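Continuing the batch. This is chain 6 of the set; chains 1 through 5 are on the previous pages. Same settings as before, nothing changed between runs. Recording input and output for traceability.
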Amino acid sequence: METPTECLMCGQHLDKFPSHHSPQAHRQCHRPGIGRPARYSANETPTLGNQAGGWHGDGHGDEDKTFESLIGMTKEQFYAHQSDQKRDGRKKAMSVPKPRFHLSVYSRGPLKCPHKSCRKTVAVAHFVNHFKSEHSDVGICSVERDKELCVPLDISLVEHGLHFCLTMITVYQMNRVDFVKSGSSESVRRACSKFCQNVPVDTFWLMASGSVERKSNVAYCFFWLLTNSEGSYKCSMELSSKDDSVCLSTYCAVTNFGNGDFSRAAKELRALLVTRSSLKFILKEGAPLNLRVTVH
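Output for chain 6:
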């Protein structure tokens, strides 16, 4: 049998490829790839011949067989599998429950003052000056961070549907330098003592709010902390009777100014909620009540 001099697939002379002695060995021409004319040729349909009489296939048949050998399934099976996956993905996305609370992008624009019926539009950075100048009746306290502050509470100040600022709190942190145990000289001790001072951390407003509902079985009040800082703070709050025999307490997050919706302090449980019936029971010992706050 005469040995062919040309590859039956690509048409190139076999002399260029000494390692390939027959068209059957020249199999790379049958594989898909860039630069192989048999894969992209628009000429007549290629023909593979053998001693038994030959096998004739069109380009689509070769492509389908190559796809099946690489992927492990036919094109129809592959596309059907892809459609099923997309359908299942959409079902899973629809079935995932949405979180009850979500992080919102807080506005740094001017907001309305929440104290009683003031409602003046004030820049967030100027709230401290606004309270000092416009609400001089609001007291100013200072306390060290993680230390307890007790504020006498006149419950008659709380009104339905209004926010009331009980006091403005400046929280500071003490810088302590332990120079006594170090055995340093007197000059070093005097220098170190200058660093032992109160460093202001942030300003907080202790707020009291009444519910919009006035019916005795659903009415309530809540106490919460407000800050114009972007930092994340926690606080402990306790409301006790006059003689501290009965108390209610909570540990919650401090409310930021955010977008001006201050009612979210109760919705997001960032407050100490007290029902009217509980308040009546605490008031049996008389007034005033004791409201204790600790900023963490």
